[in-house]
Write a structure and sequence with these properties.
CATH topology of one domain: Undecaprenyl pyrophosphate synthetase
Order of helices and strands: HEHHEHEHEHHHEEH
CATH class of one domain: Alpha Beta
Distance between the termini: 46 Å
Number of strands: 6
Number of helices: 9
Shape: globular
Strand order of the largest sheet: 3-4-2-1-5-6
Radius of gyration: 19 Å
């Protein structure tokens, strides 16, 4: 009975979104994998990470159906690299499997890795680069895999990249100071060329960004849900879209 009621509610949500304002870019902080595993009595939290990874294909299908063209998934922060072994190794292997699965023939999403490759194992970097190459010509949307990612590090990397580019062109420090604006920095972010996120979803009940897309989310809307990521359903996604469509976006005004 409960499932039948949920299906009816889900269909109503989907109908209510017809013609509604849909975000072009959705960021997702996929939180709660470890707590999900422990809540069901599993000692090995890698089972939670694996279950969460399996949810990604569902999410991308929902995004495609809704008309979302860019999705950024926060998969591994620079802080997460301090997690103990063997959890970290297992998590990296799961991330590699996700990249491989998304790049298999027949897929529709272009895969882009974003983060600091120098903090990751060489084999993980190689898998992510291969996924980018294998999906480069796909005509569909873009899924950014944020791996070894930190928002402050991204901004620092963007500034370094900008300074290096101007030094190569022979720009003087005085000329750079006179011409520098926010758009120049944005052109060197990991997401350069993409629209900023319109909506950020975080699961598991936490209500913070944890360094996720600090620059790009200046005008984003946020949706927090208590659901652990492995239990995230289409109805939860549609609720996030409904809340987004109902808000009047002021863009800082």
């Amino acid at each position: 009975m409960r499932e039948a009621i949920l299906e009816v509610y889900e269909r109503r949500l989907a109908r209510a979104l017809e013609g509604a304002d849909i975000p072009r870019h959705v960021g997702v902080i996929m939180d709660g994998n470890r707590r999900w595993a422990r809540a069901i009595g599993l000692e090995d939290v890698a089972h939670g990470h694996r279950r969460g990874a399996d949810k990604i294909v569902d999410l991308l299908d929902w995004c495609e159906d809704a008309g979302v063209s860019v999705v950024t998934l926060f998969m591994l922060s620079t802080d997460n690299l301090r997690r103990p072994e063997p959890e970290l190794s297992a998590l990296l292997r799961i991330i590699e499997d996700v990249a491989v699965d998304l790049s298999r023939p027949g897929g529709r999403w272009q895969v882009r890795a974003m983060g600091a490759p120098e903090v990751l194992p060489t084999e993980t970097v190689a898998v992510l680069k291969q996924a980018e190459e294998d999906t480069r010509e796909r005509p569909g949307g873009t899924v950014n895999l944020a791996v070894g990612y930190g928002g402050r590090r991204e901004i620092a990397d963007a500034v370094r990249s900008l300074l290096a580019a101007h030094a190569e062109r022979g720009t003087s420090l005085e000329e750079l100071v006179d011409s520098l604006d926010v758009e120049h920095i944005a052109e060197h972010l990991y997401t350069a060329g993409q629209p900023d996120p319109d909506l950020v979803i975080r699961t598991s009940g936490e209500q913070r960004l944890s360094g996720f897309l600090l620059w790009q989310t200046a005008n984003a809307e946020f949706h927090f849900t208590d659901v652990y990521w492995p239990d995230f359903r289409r109805v939860d996604f549609l609720r996030a879209l409904r809340d987004y469509s109902a808000r009047h976006r002021r863009f800082g005004g």
